[in-house]
Amino acid sequence: MLKKHSKFFETLVLIFDWIALCCSWMLAYYLRFYFPVIPVSKGIPPFVTYLTLLIIMLPLWYTVFKAFGLYRPRRISSRFAEIIDIAKGTTIAILILVSLTFFVRKYEFSRLTFLYFWIICMIILCVERILFREFLRFIRKRGYNLRHALIVGTGNLAMDVTDKVHNHPELGIKIRGFLSDDKSQIGNELKGFKVLDTCSNIRSIVMDQKIDMVLITLPLSAHERLKRILDSIGDEMVSIMLIPDLIELATLRGGIGEFEGMPIISLRDTPLYGWNLVIKRVADVVLSITILLAVSPLMLVISVLVRATSKGPVFYKQERMGLDGKVFSMLKFRTMETQAEKETGPVWATKGDSRKTIIGAFLRKTSMDELPQFFNVLKGDMSIVGPRPEREFFIQQFRSKIPKYMLRHKMKAGITGWAQISGWRGNTSLEKRIEYDLYYIENWSLRFDMEIMWLTIWRGLVNKHAY
Q: Hey, how many other C-beta atoms are within 10 angstroms of the C-beta on 190?
């Protein structure tokens, strides 16, 4: 029954994809030749000529999409992952199609039509797939198209999986019960579902309960039993999914990759690589130049006031630790008397600190002493948004007391950050600051950066903990 359902929906999706392809191709043709951005010099080609190309396109798209797994069940997969695969598959199929038409000497197809088609096709296919997935979620919430699941394991991971499945009825997964290696647990009820039997009897349970899906949630210490469980299931037609008990070990965007056909589980990584790195850097440079030009008159006034109200340089350089633990010189307007730490050594500023200059107290309270750090951003030492950099002297103390403290250095230091606008600035809880910094790194996006910048204007510039 499971295989029949899968084939039915695969065929249905394929039909919808082909309809989307045909509509995209015809729309691209009419946009190119009847609403031309670039004038048509050789006359409008026959529509039938372009229509015959669909004979190649339909099987080509099916083959490429099949290779990207776009016709397999994606009950647990995210919408974003499917959209990315559609974009990749469409791009590769277009490149193959353009290459094939190059050898058709009898007729020259418009390259602009292919460009239109590529853009339109991706948009329509993505919308079509999203609507189809929403339809499936709708009927699953109402008890149709369900998959009956068996959870192997009764530990914390099994309970977490049960909660997640229960909280997402749109997945259409109905839990039938648990299996345990502990015979004394048989008959016990966990999260509203019974422990049906031991793992050694998994095959009979799969057959008796008409199970479609087996979710293996064994702890790390029990993974040597995995082969025995798989052998017990044998050739029963069920989907088997292994959920590794590595959640507590994974930090900073852990994920699953592949190397020469071998799955690799990443326990720690940074979100900033590839295009993410380029996008964040371009945004930093563009915004820093814009902000520096806008506040340059203000910075000139501050420079004059700093120089007029106390002896010493206008700017103050301080060694801070940034990306990957590298030390850099952070630039600020000087707010304290020169040699302020000569007698005390490195210490944090306090409320009513006598070392501050007349203008310094105001600059620190309003965060205007941080403005020169946009030059650090242009240089590449810092980002506009990121964990606030700290001095190496304090870091050596913090890292021995606060777990995962150094992980905040997996992203470039920032002028403002999620912790700062959330109230964890200055003399506040370091543990909370680290928690918010790591949350930012885990959930980084350009949109998140923009949100933090916007909130900084309203929350972060003037702060009661800014001494």
A: 16
**Residue burial 293-317, b: 16+ Cβ < 10 Å; e: rest:** eeeeeebeebeebbeeebeeeeebe
Beta bridge partners of 395: none
The answer to whether residue 267 sits within a structural domain is no
291/316 same-domain check = yes
CB 446 within 8 A of CB 283: yes
CA gap 87, 139 in Å, rounded: 27
Split into its structural domains, the chain has a count of 3
Same structural domain, 292 and 397: yes
Containing 173, the helix (H) or strand (E) segment is: strand 173-180
Domain containing 331 equals: 275-460
Whether residues 116 and 52 share a domain: the answer is yes
Tokens of 174: 């109905």
Angstrom distance (rounded) from CA 312 to CA 339: 10
Question: pTM, whole model, 2 decimals?
Answer: 0.52
pLDDT digit string, tens, across residues 269-325: 666 666 778 888 999 999 999 999 999 999 999 999 998 888 889 998 989 998 878
CATH number of domain containing 169: 3.40.50.720
